[in-house]
Amino acid sequence: MFLILRLFNSILFVVANVSVALYTLQRFFRAMRTHYQMVDEVEEYSNLVDQSRASLDYVGAKVMEALREMESDIGKEVYVTHNLTKLSTKIASVSRRFAELEEGIIELARLSHNMENATVETPSDINEEVRRILTSLKRHKSSAASEHNQRPQSHQRRTTRMSRSHVTSPVDPVQQLPAVAPNPVSKFTAVRPSRHRSRSPGLVPEVMLLDEQRRSPADKPIGFRPAWMCPV
């Protein structure tokens, strides 16, 4: 009986030990399976992180490349804009110079056209011109004297005094010439120059030696001015 009880106790102990061992193994395998699942998930997560980092690096590289291209494009645009500004100022100055040159060419063409149809009006003989002016002055004096003679007797003495003063004081015929305002346009006439027109001979200066006698005042030309008419 004691042996049977002892055997039974040993069988129960063995069964309990086996059941405990089986339960422990079951929990161990379950924990190991969970561990492997977690390791797989961690590896997958790390792979995803690596892929995301690689994609971020790729995107950053592309963004930096795009920024460099934008900087180069902006630099080129600024350079082109600067050149266009300089060229616009140069073109404006060149167009202004061309306009001035065009005006000058038009003026020169107009002047050459006017010079082809114009000639300078100069007297053929200067002595003849001076003689004509003096004759007109004498006529003017004679007409003024006739007007003075027609006035009443009260003004006769005054006119005689004025005539005496005119006779006593030297008269400069050049100063009595009528003052005419200079008109450069009146010097030109719209007459086409003739090729067969004879030009007046030039004035030859008078040359006199030391032992040569001077000519009399009567032999001198009309354009000669006496010594008393020359300013001191």
UniProtKB/TrEMBL annotation:
Keywords: Membrane, Transmembrane, Transmembrane helix. Residues 143-153 have a biased composition (Polar residues). Residues 154-164 have a biased composition (Basic residues). The chain crosses the membrane at residues 6-25. It comes from the Eukaryota. Residues 138-182 are annotated as: Disordered. This is Uncharacterized protein. It comes from Nasonia vitripennis.
